[in-house]
Amino acid sequence: MNDFDIPLFQKTYNAYREFYECLKNFPKGDRYAIGQRTEQVFLALLSDIIRASKAPRLQKGVAVGNAQISVGILRVCIRLSKDVRALNLKQYISLEEKVDEIGRMLGGWKRSLE
After folding, report:
1. Each residue of 15-62: pLDDT tens digit?
2. Which residues does 109 contact at the CB level (< 8 Å), separation at least 6?
3. What is the domain partition of the chain in residue ranges?
4. Burial class (CB in 10 A: 0-12, 13-18, 19+), 22
5. 66: which residues sit within 8 A by CB, 6+ positions away?
6. pLDDT tier, 6 (very low <50, low <70, confident <90, very high otherwise)
7. What is the percent of the chain with per-residue pLDDT over 70, rounded to a whole number?
8. Which pairs count as long-range contacts for 49-52, CB under 8 Å and 24+ apart, including other chains?
């Protein structure tokens, strides 16, 4: 199975692509501060998901836990982007819904490992 076939990876990848399009319209100062940090967290989350999918069963829990932390940071970054008006309300709601779904999927994965 290819990493791109994992539904969680695909959802995260699509959410990142949507954020990337929004990032183009961020004010310059926000683009290089909160925008860049959010982009880094998205990319770290994609890496965490790949690591978790490839890890031996006993190590998957740690990798999934790291991904859950990334999701928490992502939620804060996206909310802050809305609060500083780098994201409009429609963009915020769309991204937040996607990140919530990613969080639920990670939670299910974590429970299945316990």
Report:
1. 999 999 999 999 998 888 999 999 999 999 999 999 999 988 888 889
2. 8, 52, 64
3. 3-113
4. buried
5. 48, 51, 52
6. confident
7. 96
8. 49/3, 49/6, 49/8, 49/9, 49/12, 50/3, 50/9, 52/109
3-state secondary structure the chain: CCHHHCHHHHHHHHHHHHHHHHHCCCCHHHHHHHHHHHHHHHHHHHHHHHHHHHCCHHHHHHHHHHHHHHHHHHHHHHHHHHHCCCCCHHHHHHHHHHHHHHHHHHHHHHHHHC
The CATH H-level superfamily of 3-113 is 23S rRNA-intervening sequence (1.20.1440.60)
pLDDT at 1: 54
